[in-house]
Amino acid sequence: MNNFYVGSEIGQLRTVMLHRPERALTHLTPSNCHDLLFDDVLSVERAGEEHDKFAQTLRDQGVEVLLLQTLLAETLDVPEAKAWLMNLKISDYTFGPSFANDIRCYLNDLPHHELASMFLGGLAYSELPIASTSMLQAMHAPSDFIIDPLPNHLFTRDTSCWLYGGVSINPMAKPARKRETNHLRAIYKWHPRFSNGDFITYFGGENIDYDNATIEGGDVTVLGKGVVLIGMSERTTPQGVENLASSLFKHGQAKQVIAMELPKHRSCMHLDTVMTHMREDTFSVYPEVIRKDIQCWSLTGDRSGHLNVREEDYFLTAIEKALDVGPLNLITTGGDSFEAEREQWNDANNVLTVRPGVVVGYERNTYTNEKYDKAGITVLSIPGDELGRGRGGARCMSCPIHRDGI
Q1: What is the active site of this protein (predicted)?
Q2: Residue among 17, 21, 18, 235 nearest 120 (CA)
């Protein structure tokens, strides 16, 4: 069996990649968190404890958990990978030749688990234990960053997403997240687990400017049966959708992509913050956003890569037809309008399905979790008082690498 295959959102989850938040959170402050696309400053220790409970909950369900920092450290053991990442991050053009050389000399001597921690979590000028003759060091405040922290790496769903027999290594929309993608490019190319793996790279494998063709995994739902559902949010563009769809069809891995237009605002940053798949005929939805008048298109194609695009009358009908089920059961966010808005903000709809009808979600979303329970959905609840302040739930924080189809 190919261990690099994701055939659905609801089949048995077998292998997942998570990132335990540590160093990046220590660098978050009220004055810089918004520039780093994080809504709040989290308690580092508590967030780590909550993440540990999330990972253990998955392990208890028989899911293999891979940790991003460990994968990156092991990738840095490969000299070619280390040189590639070092040249990208510490270039003469970014820092000037003398300072770049000084930084590289310092970083090259670090144990790889420390180097991985800095690549993911950042390095401030005050943390550099060497003095450089470069003008740059003298001109920066101690709290300025040489390497910016990447707190959003917590949301491993976005940076790469696996669809059927391959992966999209996603060009991210915001400058604060673009560097995340290179870590996944390096891991999937050089890490021993992936370097000889039998999988396709559909899109985003090159370190080039993808311009307007951005896509993030939180918008991508592998419906199963050769169909993919993609939300066009503030982070995922029609250009990104068309490029990914064309590659899926060229490689014979999908027969249809359904694309839905979403409002371009923060509260529904990705499709999975307002709609997730829980059982073959059951979705969780936030009805204030997932409305009947959402524009929707169906993309089909063949191995030539040519796309046929047609507008659909109603997205639910398109999904029912694709899954050959109906009518769909939609579980809406719980509580009155105020409670539902709060719970959606706290990721009540952003659950990770472990197997059909069993999901992981935050325990704080009591009204919505009660509705799931009444609908026969088992919620494996995890604490999220700190993690949830990053504006992402269990689905956002997980990148399935191996999952059964339906």
Answers
A1: 396 (amidino-cysteine intermediate)
A2: 21
Residues 220 and 322 in one domain: yes
282 within a domain of the structure (yes/no): yes
CATH number of the domain enclosing 101: 1.10.3930.10
d(CA 228, CA 225): 9
pLDDT in tens, 236-257: 999 999 999 999 999 999 999 9
Residue 3 lies in a domain: no
Separation CA 7–CA 5 (nearest Å): 6
Same domain, 218 and 312: yes
User: Is residue 355 packed enough to be buried (19+ CB in 10 Å), middle (13-18) or exposed (0-12)?
Assistant: middle
For the chain, what's the residue count? 406
Q: Do 250 and 286 fall into the same domain?
A: yes
Q: Which of 161, 296, 396, 399 is catalytic?
A: 396
1 within domain boundaries:
no
Q: Look up the domain containing 336 and give its range.
A: 10-70+151-403
The whole-number pLDDT of residue 290 equals 82
Task: Provide the greatest CA pair distance for the chain.
Answer: 69
pLDDT tens-place string over residues 64-123: 999 999 999 999 999 999 999 999 999 999 999 999 999 999 999 999 999 999 999 999
